[in-house]
Amino acid sequence: MRAIYLDHAATTFVLPEVREAMARHLEERVGNPSSIHEFGRRAKAAVEDAREAVAALIGATAAEVVFTSGGTEADNAALVGAVLALRDRGRHVVTTAIEHHAVLYTARHLEEWGFEVTYVHPGPRGVVGAEDVARALRPDTVLVSVMWVNNETGAVQPVRDIGALAKERGILFHTDAVQAVPWLPVEVDAVGCDLLSVSAHKLHGPQGIGALYVRKGTPWVPLLYGGTQERGRRAGTENVPGIVGFGAAAAWLKARRTAGLDHTARLREIFLGAVREEFGQVLVHSPEDGIPAILNVAFPGVSAETLLMNLDLHGIAASSGSACTSGSLEPSHVLQAMGLGDAVVRSSLRFSFSIQTTEEEVREAGRAVGRIARRLVRPGGHG
Predict the structure, then answer these.
(1) Is 324 tagged catalytic?
(2) Is Iron-sulfur among the key words of this record (predicted)?
(3) CB-neighbour burial class of residue 317 (10 A; exposed 0-12, middle 13-18, buried 19+)
(4) Is the model's pLDDT at 379 over the cut of 90?
(5) From CA 357, how far away is CA 263, in angstroms rounded?
(6) Which residue in the list 324, 364, 374, 381 is annotated as catalytic?
(7) Which of 33, 55, 291, 313 would staple 43 via disulfide (CB 3.0–4.6 Å)?
(8) Do 55 and 64 touch, CB atoms closer than 8 A?
(9) 331 vs 90, which has greater pLDDT?
(10) Distance from C-alpha of 274 to C-alpha of 339, rounded to nearest angstrom
């Protein structure tokens, strides 16, 4: 069968409009954005045009957007920059057990540096309660970091309630919105965040470019030094082609998010129906009110690792979890935090769609996934 890509939560394909914008820029004779001559000014203008587009996508002002190398750097910079700026006020951080590793690994390093971190666990639907976050707060808490949309299940977290809670207590609030921005009408003022992370390659832009929103007046220090780029907030020559592509993707996406959400909701139902038709009952870990573009499913009696390899042989791309740990055999920390047993966790795969995915593709893939999974059921494992 033809190759079908169902791993858009790991990365999306670059839009033709984005490729064209980047190609036009690369064909021009532009200089370093920090140079004051005409060649540099043209590069600087391209960066600032893209900054405006990214800011508009999240409801921010352009001056509050700092370009980074991607979502991981944005998360690292948000946590480290905030706690270092406020370390004389307190050394306690609150986050969740279902965060992307870009946050979790950074939190572990903060603990090694003498900070205390509380990890709030979700309920069985994969959603963290705002009241649980409230109970974790202490007088010395300086930062709360809660992702907006989980990258493995699509569960939407109550970030507005958490943002209001943090604001009431005078605590900085960061949200990893990498999986939210492609689908939801993100407005930084509405959610009340002080810091927000976004990545271009999750929304049909190029890889290797992202952004961190830093609200004006937020106590925060940069990670990188050695230049005055990004208003002194991130040293180093800007990735101008990547930034141009990011801006083009942001502009394209802004008017299409609602349509994309409706489209992927249809894809989810078609895919699940086709899988069940061939395999029978599966366990769906993704909540109904989550982002339909991310679907996490367990196939009872089937090894996810074996199923994943067989799907690849048949030209179907899926994932066993976060792309940052896809080369690892470790079970999903997100599903474990939801209280799922080891057998269920090790039989679970993530399928993710985009606005470019077609109904024909998911119908064909769903049937193939169901057939292959049925063939791989261990004796006595599928009741």
Answers:
(1) yes
(2) yes
(3) middle
(4) no
(5) 9
(6) 324
(7) 33
(8) yes
(9) 90
(10) 28
Tokens of 152: 């493995």
Tell me which H or E stretch contains 294.
strand 294-298
What is the identity of the amino acid at 32? N
With contact defined as beta carbons under 8 Å apart, do 178 and 159 qualify?
no
Q: What share of the chain is helix, strand, coil (3-state, %, to 5)?
A: 45, 15, 40
> Of the candidates 100, 46, 57, which has an alpha carbon nearest to the alpha carbon of residue 78?
100
Answering whether pTM is above 0.85, one says yes
* pLDDT tens digits, 263-298: 999 999 999 999 999 999 999 999 999 999 999 999
Distance of alpha carbon 127 from alpha carbon 255, whole angstroms: 28
CATH code of 16-254, in short, is 3.40.640.10
pLDDT score at 326: 47
The string of pLDDT tens digits covering residues 137-150 is 999 999 999 999 99
In degrees and rounded to multiples of 5, residue 243 shows phi and psi of: -65, -40
> Fold match between 4-12+257-376 and 16-254?
no
pLDDT in the model for residue 2: 85
Q: How many Å apart are CA 31 and CA 40, to the nearest integer? A: 4
Domain ranges of the chain: 4-12+257-376, 16-254
4-12+257-376, which class in CATH? alpha beta
Whole-number Å distance between alpha carbons of 214 and 60: 9
Q: How far apart are CA 58 and CA 66, in angstroms?
A: 13
Beta strand 4-5 pairing with 316-317 = parallel
Q: Where are the beta strands (DSSP E) in 121-168?
A: 141-145
User: Coil, helix or strand for 275?
Assistant: helix
- CB-based contact 331:300 (threshold 8 Å): no
Produce one character per residue of 165-189: b if its CB has 16 or more CB atoms within 10 Å, e if not: bbeeeebbbbbbbbbbbbbbebebe
- Helix residue ranges, H only, 177-256: 188-191, 229-232, 240-254
How far apart, in whole angstroms, are the C-alpha atoms of residue 261 and residue 266?
9
Enumerate residues 6+ apart whose C-beta is below 8 A from 224.
Answer: 234, 235, 236
